[in-house]
């Protein structure tokens, strides 16, 4: 049996994931609860003030922020979805590509797909999305 | 009885040994990694001390202040991580007023959980063969099993998905804190992490195109047959390393916690164990990323490139081979982590706009070019080491040739500082003393004024 076929397709191979998540969550929660129990508790009048380098805080921190962060999030979505589409192709293409008549078609299709990504990139670049100043 | 037969269809008749081995491996590995993370902080302090010509932690031994354990005093400061952990537990867990209580508590948990479940997919010990056996009459089907916390067919996609979840902890921590430093740090960190996820995924694609499988053992098998992928895909390896540095918020990309600008970034308002969880998550993220890099580009558990030694080959399925593979794999991870630490203490931090411009204008187009180059090479059937290396060199030369033709921004050019060695001051214009001698007496002079002349 070659190691590449070892991973099981059926859901029973996902069973350890339950243990993994339980352990990680348990570790995190146990630490926080432990320090809540054994740590000291002292309240102070000025203790709860947000730290602003020793000055009195000005206004609130829940403010509007630069629209550039929204733009980055949107461009990220476009590119990330494109990359996600490429994974099944990347796992299949090398197994059929050389010496197959379909290979060229697969290559041209995905190159066209990447070409649309490049168009989107150039559009974003001309719009100044990737400029930070 | 109908209920009985329904139950028996739910319960499997036998369990593959893979499930048991995976569970045991993860329980072991999570302890190894947590201990490693504690000592990585010690290692980082020692390395920074070495680079800055200091001594570093060297006082805390294992004596715990008890006189009858005095012989354990000192010990090169190896007790420091224990003392730090204990101190974190004993400090006050304080939430400042005005924070969003629920999110403030949730954020460290959301940060640490993905960091702790990410490395489950790494096949530390390769493949080990287990015989058929049964526990209390319940049959366990043996065979060749992967020594990893999780052996699923989605493979490395699981790791990418979990790594993407790490952003939430930082974002929530920054938002919930009600502090401007935290808020700005969280925003910056979010933008940086989602930006560098793209080159991470794209350079991973360049590897998957050569291996043709998503399963970690298959990627390692490919590297045993064709040589390590760092030789076949050097550009993708560099891009991947830059991306994992940025994903783990390590210098030179640690803008989220730039001390000079943002105090502590998203964890400014955190204290005690909740802060420690953020800290642990960062270091556990380093371990995961470095293991990912070693898996993809450094041949996994192969000891020497191009040499198929019997102990660490994928065909070796004994217990001794498993231990040897684990040692080799972990050695590579520690080496990469030391490399990251040396980078942190050698390079200055990039400015935030430089980080984002590097990501969007340089690294992402570069990784797109690598994907196109690799897919053409795969179509031509030239996936050997030498043709791929030549193609990489060709791509690099091509990019260097067309680089001056590409549009470049005129901002952010290097400006020679007036008076530096790049822009020396004209000696004739330098005035060392006021021309008017009475001007000196306007100042309140304490003691005797030094004569300048």
What is the radius of gyration of chain A? 26 Å
Q: Approximately what portion of the residues of chain A adopt beta-strand conformation?
A: under 5%
CA-to-CA gap between the ends of chain B? 110 Å
Oligomeric grouping of the chains:
heterodimer
Average pLDDT of chain A works out at: 78
Shape of chain B: globular
Number of helices of chain A: 3
Largest contact between chains: A-B, 81 and 101 residues
Share in helix of chain B:
55-70%
Helix content of chain A: 55-70%
Structural class of chain B: mainly alpha
From N to C, what is the helix and strand string of chain B?
HEHHHEEEEHHHHHHHHHH
Number of strands of chain B: 5
Average pLDDT metric of chain B = 80
Q: Approximately how much beta-strand content do the residues of chain B carry?
A: under 5%
| Unreliable stretches covering 5 or more consecutive residues of chain B | none
Radius of gyration of chain B: 28 Å
Low-pLDDT regions of chain A: 1-8
Key words describing this protein structure:
heterodimer, A: mainly alpha, flat, disordered N terminus, B: 453 residues, mainly alpha, two-stranded antiparallel sheet, globular
Task: Give a verbal description of the structure.
The complex is a heterodimer of chains A (133) and B (453). With 133 residues, chain A is an all-alpha fold. Chain A has 3 helices and no strands. Chain A is flat. With 453 residues, chain B is mainly alpha-helical. In chain B, helix 2 (17-51) crosses helix 11 (272-297), helix 3 (80-90) packs across helix 11 and helix 4 (101-117) packs antiparallel against helix 5 (156-176). The longest helix of chain B is centred in the N-terminal third of the chain and has 35 residues, at 17-51. Chain B starts with a helix and ends in a 51-residue tail after the last helix. The mean pLDDT of chain B is 80. At the A-B interface, helix 1, helix 2 and helix 3 of A face strand 1, helix 2, helix 3, helix 4 and strand 5 of B.
